[in-house]
């Protein structure tokens, strides 16, 4: 290449660009770019070092670089996500090539404490100033590079397990570092232990973790040092979770921001589950669902246009809360063992670790462990919009059985039907409960299940595991009909036919006839192959201990 381009706001003025002692020609254009002309063509596979000298007061539009005060003391801090890094330093502000490593030198009046990513290497006093050197030796995207300076008090902790133990360095405003805040910060090693147990060792354990207080209303997961407005357990958990999901593996486009924010939100919920118990976890999920369903539209995955809109990128309803509940539904669908193993595999993937991932990368790892396609799930819940409303009818259906009918409507036309395993809790007169999960794949689907008591009530999704709203559950009073209780599925059928009968009767023989009345299959099993049948309508004769019944199937 003969030129190299950096992102840099034209509010900041570049005075010189040098390669060694050679001054290079450069241009700052109206696209907030610094275009540098190289003295000769740079060949692929070779490297050079250039020095850019620039100055000025960063623009405040993106709020990427803030100069303010706390209790009358000056403070500066940065927050560059998503598009603000260029507001204060010349960078490659993209999501496809991380910076291999950084050295950061901050010169400030010597009474102040400077903060940046990685390990503090040195402090050098020069007159009334102090130069603090930080070094971060992991790949990092431009938006996670950060600095802060003020009269911080430092509160140290330790986390991890030897030989992978590491310091937690907390930079706190002196007026804030109270015993109560120290008690809040004591949650950090506990949350770290949980995440390391569920997933893997803290990705940056060779350096540090920590917090730096700042004035923005929330938190920001700068690698190895999260900037924090407060130290609530939920915020500590959210920003710490990003060190795995967002910092180690970073979303490959802003359309995939849920891979950062959905995970961090769900991991914060896992802290509630593990520290406070299931009742609190249910309440937390219910709160997320209520927010998600407060509007009828919206997808987890962004469009190209939405990915230019900072407010949409960081939609708490969609990127954070819906992303989190999608993960919860994947956990329900896959089961804990497979779900968490898939996430550990995702984090360990050398093509993704300390690099970037898009939604299809996560889907690949989930499917590899699950053993089945999740395309339908992702289409419904990630790429398209809205949520289902379920109508459940439950009724007693012969001795020791119940029939449950599931129907749904959709809040948005982009999804014709939400496929999802749905939990239902049946109750009896004596306080009995029976939990079942129904694989709901079609509308108005009927399930006949064995229940050890006569049901008197039903509760849909008692643990609040599914995004849905305005669901209804009714107890049916239809009389039991053995003819209806015998069901064949799937119908239409392609490969294997399943016959469902009440548990108090036994099968004797199943005979299938074609449309000419010719016998084509005979079996005494409830499950058998129909591959040999021709396409079209066939008639099934089911001989049982309670009589003979006739059904019709369609062979695909």
User: Averaging pLDDT over every residue, what do you get?
Assistant: 96
Number of strand elements: 34
The side-by-side strand order for the widest beta sheet comes to 14-15-16-18-17
Q: Any idea of the CATH topology of the largest domain?
A: Zincin-like
Shape, per Cα inertia axes: elongated
Family: Belongs to the peptidase M1 family.
GO molecular function: aminopeptidase activity
Cofactor: Zn(2+)
EC number: 3.4.11.2
Description:
- Helices cover 22% and strands 35% of the residues.
- The protein is an alpha+beta fold.
- Strands 14-15-16-18-17 form a 5-stranded mixed β-sheet, with helices on one face.
- A hairpin with a 2-residue loop joins β33 (536-544) and β34.
- α2 (187-198) packs across α3, α4 runs antiparallel to α5 (278-292) and α7 (316-334) packs across α8 (336-348).
- The mean pLDDT is 96.
Question: Which helices and strands occur, and which strands form pairs?
Answer:
Blueprint: E1 3-7, E2 13-19, E3 22-23, E4 25-28, E5 33-37, E6 51-55, E7 65-70, E8 73-78, E9 102-109, E10 113-116, E11 119-126, E12 129-136, E13 147-150, E14 153-159, E15 166-172, H1 179-185, H2 187-198, E16 209-213, E17 219-220, E18 226-228, H3 233-242, E19 250-251, H4 258-276, H5 278-292, H6 310-313, H7 316-334, H8 336-348, E20 356-357, H9 359-370, H10 375-383, E21 388-396, E22 401-410, E23 420-428, E24 433-440, E25 445-450, E26 455-460, E27 472-475, H11 482-485, E28 487-489, E29 496-500, E30 507-513, E31 519-523, E32 527-529, E33 536-544, E34 547-555
Parallel strand pairs: 15-16, 16-18, 19-20, 21-27
Antiparallel strand pairs: 1-5, 2-3, 2-6, 4-5, 7-8, 8-13, 9-12, 10-13, 11-12, 14-15, 17-18, 21-22, 22-25, 23-24, 23-26, 28-29, 29-32, 30-31, 30-33, 33-34
InterPro entries: Aminopeptidase_N-like_N, Aminopeptidase_N-like_N_sf, Peptidase_M1, Peptidase_M1_aminopeptidases, Peptidase_M1_dom, Peptidase_M4/M1_CTD_sf, Secre_tail
Domain Secretion system C-terminal sorting: 488-554
GO molecular function, one term: aminopeptidase activity
């Amino acid at each position: 290449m003969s030129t190299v381009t950096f992102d840099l706001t034209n509010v900041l003025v570049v005075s010189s660009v040098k390669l060694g002692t050679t001054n290079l020609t450069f241009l700052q254009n109206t696209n907030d770019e610094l275009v540098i002309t190289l003295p000769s063509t740079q060949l692929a596979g070779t490297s050079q070092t250039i020095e850019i000298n620039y100055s000025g007061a960063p623009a405040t539009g993106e709020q990427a670089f803030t100069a303010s005060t706390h209790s009358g003391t000056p403070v500066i801090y940065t927050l560059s996500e998503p598009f603000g890094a260029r507001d204060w330093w010349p960078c490659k502000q993209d999501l496809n090539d991380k910076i291999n490593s950084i050295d950061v030198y901050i010169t400030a009046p010597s009474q102040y404490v400077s903060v940046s990513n990685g390990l503090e290497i040195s402090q050098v006093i020069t007159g009334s100033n102090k130069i603090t050197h930080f070094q971060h030796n992991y790949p990092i995207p431009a938006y996670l590079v950060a600095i802060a300076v003020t009269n911080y008090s430092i509160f140290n902790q330790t986390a991890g397990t030897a030989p992978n133990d590491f310091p937690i360095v907390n930079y706190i405003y002196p007026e804030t570092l109270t015993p109560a805040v120290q008690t809040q910060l004591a949650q950090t090693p506990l949350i770290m232990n949980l995440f390391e147990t569920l997933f893997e060792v803290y990705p940056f354990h060779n350096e540090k973790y920590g917090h730096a207080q700042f004035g923005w209303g929330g938190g920001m997961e700068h690698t190895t040092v999260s900037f924090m407005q407060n130290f609530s357990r939920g915020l500590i958990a959210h920003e710490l979770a990003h060190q795995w999901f967002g910092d180690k593996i970073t979303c490959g486009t802003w359309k995939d921001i849920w891979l950062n924010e959905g995970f961090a939100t769900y991991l914060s919920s896992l802290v509630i589950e593990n520290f406070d118990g299931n009742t609190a976890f249910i309440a937390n999920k219910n709160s997320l669902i209520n927010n998600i369903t407060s509007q009828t539209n919206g997808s987890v995955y962004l469009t190209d246009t939405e990915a230019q809109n900072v407010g949409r990128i960081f939609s708490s309803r969609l990127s954070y809360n819906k992303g989190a509940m999608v993960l919860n539904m994947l956990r329900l669908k896959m089961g804990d063992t497979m779900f968490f193993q898939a996430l550990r595999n995702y984090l360990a993937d050398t093509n993704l670790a300390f690099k970037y991932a898009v939604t299809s990368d996560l889907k690949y790892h989930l499917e590899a462990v699950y053993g089945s396609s999740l395309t339908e799930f992702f289409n419904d819940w990630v790429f398209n919009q809205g949520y289902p409303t379920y109508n459940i009818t439950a009724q007693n259906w012969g001795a020791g059985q119940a029939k449950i009918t599931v129907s749904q409507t959709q809040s948005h036309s982009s999804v014709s039907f939400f496929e999802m395993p749905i939990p239902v809790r049946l109750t009896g007169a004596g306080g009995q409960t029976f939990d079942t999960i129904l694989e709901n794949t079609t509308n108005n689907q009927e399930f006949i299940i064995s229940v050890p008591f006569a049901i008197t009530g039903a509760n849909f999704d008692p643990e609040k595991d599914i995004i849905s709203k305005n669901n209804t559950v009714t107890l049916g009073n239809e009389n039991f009909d053995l003819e209806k209780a015998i069901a064949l599925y799937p119908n239409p059928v392609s490969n294997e036919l399943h016959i469902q009968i009440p548990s108090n009767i036994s099968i004797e023989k199943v005979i299938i006839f074609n449309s000419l009345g010719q016998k084509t299959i005979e079996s005494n099993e409830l499950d058998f192959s129909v591959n040999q049948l021709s396409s079209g309508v066939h008639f099934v004769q089911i001989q049982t201990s309670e009589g003979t019944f006739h059904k019709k199937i369609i062979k695909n």
